[in-house]
Design brief:
Elements (H helix, E strand, L loop, with lengths): L6 H15 L13 H18 L4 H9 L6 H4 L3 H25 L8
Helix pairs in contact: 2-3, 2-5, 3-5
Length: about 110
């Protein structure tokens, strides 16, 4: 195995593969994403799917973050508007190549 920046990931993958071959119970992968991060990425992708389907930012916010409709008079300053915009920015960063960083979590992807 090459001794590069991804050595720890390769070593862990080889160890888990060996355990499965020997009939032992597999362990969680090194650098597995925490539940909160996983949930946030799921929301990011759902928001991106909504935008690509032609939904407005308000519809996306209502679908993802609340059970009720947001009155139009409150939308301009509503906290969910800001949360939806931040979610869309994160989704755009993932699509622009940020998803590669997930492969090297908790470290950084080699540049």
């Amino acid at each position: 195995m090459p001794l590069d920046d991804a050595f720890e990931l390769r070593l862990d993958a080889a160890r888990r593969f060996w355990r499965v071959l020997k009939g032992r119970r597999s362990t969680p992968a090194y650098g597995a994403l925490p539940r909160q991060s996983t949930a946030r990425h799921v929301i990011n992708l759902r928001a991106l799917d909504g935008r690509r389907a032609g939904s407005s930012l308000r519809e996306i916010a209502e679908t993802l973050f609340t059970d009720s409709q947001i009155p139009s008079r409150d939308w301009r300053d509503h906290p969910l508007r800001h949360k939806a915009r931040a979610t869309m920015r994160r989704a755009d960063r993932l699509v622009a190549g940020g998803y590669r960083d997930l492969l090297f979590y908790p470290g950084k992807a080699p540049r």
